[in-house]
Amino acid sequence: MTAFPQRVFSGVQPTGNLHLGNYLGAITRFVALQDSHDCIYCVVDMHAITQAVSVWGGPDELKKSTREVTAAFIAAGIDPDKHIVFNQSQVAEHAELAWVFNCVARMGWLNRMTQFKEKAGKHRENASVGLFAYPTLMAADILVYRATHVPVGEDQKQHLELSRDIAQKFNGDFADSIRAVTGGEEFFPLPEPLIQGPATRVMSLRDGTKKMSKSDPSDNSRINLTDDADTIAQKIRKAKTDPEPLPGEEEGLKERPEADNLVGIYSALADKPKADVLAEFGGAQFSTFKTALADLSVARLSPIAAEMRRLTADPGYIDTVLVRGADQAREIARPVMNSVKDIVGFLR
Ligand code: TRP
What we know:
Layout: E1 7-12, H1 20-33, E2 38-43, H2 45-48, H3 53-56, H4 59-76, E3 84-87, H5 93-102, H6 107-111, H7 114-120, H8 129-143, E4 149-151, H9 157-173, H10 175-182, E5 192-194, H11 229-238, H12 257-270, H13 274-281, H14 286-312, H15 315-344
Parallel strand pairs: 1-2, 2-3, 4-5
Helix pairs in contact: 4-14, 5-8, 5-15, 8-9, 10-15, 11-14, 12-13, 12-14
This protein binds tryptophan.
């Protein structure tokens, strides 16, 4: 087996508001990995346009959301001077490699993707070709940097498995050519998902069995990163619960999805295990717990919201960060893409 140097890659779609689920499920982990890994964090604007224009909001909205996700990365603590932060469409190698992967991946593989089935709904014939091919572009995002580790939420595990299948099939189909061009055995690493932490799945505040989502029609179902303190407190006060007081142990959260979710959010924001949260609040009424959760949420989120406001007030700065990030990303992607061309047999 070829040993590949460790590299982290992940992406966030610029569609609508970022919420607590994005923050706890993804962005805080991006921040944590900076100390141990070389990281590349990408605003995946090409993935955003796979759905109907009405979903992503058109060109002005896309630019605004792209800058907003970038601002959230920086506000949350990602350092664009030490790691690479950029938007996908500025590095053409993503699309180039995605085409090759479209010819490696099989229809049958993509037909199994649950996210496509969910997003396409009943009208599969009406879904864009891009939505169907979404996972091959995602594989290209990762593999054009030969990234080895990918922090993602549970819901992206299937796409990561597909990326591994694509890498493996490419390595196998072109084995002789890879040997001739590079002298090595495998060309692409098999990227590993990094799924960890207590609140990888933040659920809706209105329904503890559904994921917190920007597409939920009720704004009360989510806490947006840009919500002010009053709005955060109000949404938590209104959050669905059950009539029982909080249990003293984790066992007691089973079959209580709303209670489990709020305790999970508290635990992630306080950065301590659920058991510790329950040791503190076991037996308390939700009214008490919700006040503490609201205070904690405001304390953790309002500095980020303030920094995001400061950063987005200066789009020139954000755009400079993205251009510089794209230049750095291209420096890694270009030689990889050149080798892919040689391996496949494209003259250059
Ligand atoms: N599909 C991911 C999501 O919806 C976003 C994404 C695109 C991504 N390309 C990626 C995540 C590459 C990790 C790596 O969350």
